[in-house]
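hi! just following up on the protien thing from before. the input was this:
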Amino acid sequence: MGTYGYCAPEYAMSGKLTLKSDIYSFGVVLLELITGRKAIDSSRKPGEQNLIVWSRPFLKDRRKFVQLVDPMLQGHFPLRSLHHAVAITAMCLQEHANFRPIISDIVVALEYLASQTNKESPRGAAHSSSLPSPLQQGRDSFSG
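and the predicted 3d structure came back as:
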């Protein structure tokens, strides 16, 4: 049985897990990282408790991507990187499993995102440009 909030729609209907079900769950985790929210948070008001339901309008409109971002970042992030990260997330969260990417394509997209993030200066204050990218930190910890 899958964890509520991370289950792909087809799993909820059929009870069968596939590789594409895992891609959906990974998309939920990516969305949690972007938003700083939990997949299911009963402490939030109705309409905001389910992260996927809450985020759908933002994921469909590129101009609203910024509204997804964890407020703790206080606007200090590269805008282009946000757009790439949200696009990857949205692909993983496609309602129909056949439209979701395969994991190797996600890895390539995330590697590209990490390489570009290091070249960009964060949106907002210049002083934050010295902050290392979380993706870079993770990659550095595995490479040595």
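The two ends are 37 Å apart (CA to CA).
The CA atoms of residues 104 and 129 lie 30 Å apart.
cheers
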